[in-house]
Design a protein that fits this description.
The protein has about 120 residues and is α+β, with helices and mostly antiparallel strands. The chain is built from 3 helices and 5 strands; from the N terminus they run H-E-E-H-E-E-E-H. A hairpin with a 4-residue loop joins strand 1 and strand 2. The protein is globular, with a radius of gyration of 13 Å.
Length: about 120
């Protein structure tokens, strides 16, 4: 089911590459597409982004669940979409051909299809 989810995520319009990551371990559960760089390395590195955001959220006393984190580059969006309590999708979108709002919505739907716990 995880591989199917990553494949679905990689088919989002404008998506160069997708990964499903366990941010507690840094392990990639699967990748698909060709972002032009090592998706597994990028996904593992983004575990630090997720951990940092959670740490700041907790220090601020905010109890809301993080839904997603967007990193905007000049030609790409890097979108981290939380799934359950320990996983996230990481996708790389072309800014010219991708639709960020639609990508967020599609990842939400794909994430709900996975059988993972929710916080």
């Amino acid at each position: 089911m995880q591989k199917t989810s990553v494949t679905k995520a990689s088919k989002i319009d404008g998506c160069f590459g997708a990964a499903l990551v366990d941010f507690e371990t840094g392990l990639c559960m699967g990748t698909a597409g060709n972002a032009g760089f090592d998706l597994e390395l990028a996904a593992a590195g983004n575990c630090e982004v997720v951990r940092a955001k959670m740490k700041i959220r907790d220090k601020l006393g905010i109890s809301d669940r993080i839904e997603d984190i967007r990193i905007s580059l000049s030609n790409q969006y890097h979108l981290i979409r939380m799934v359950g309590t320990t996983m996230f999708f990481y996708i790389v979108l072309d800014r010219q051909n991708g639709n960020l709002a639609m990508a967020r919505r599609e990842l939400e739907i794909i994430g709900k299809e996975l059988d993972v716990g929710r916080a």
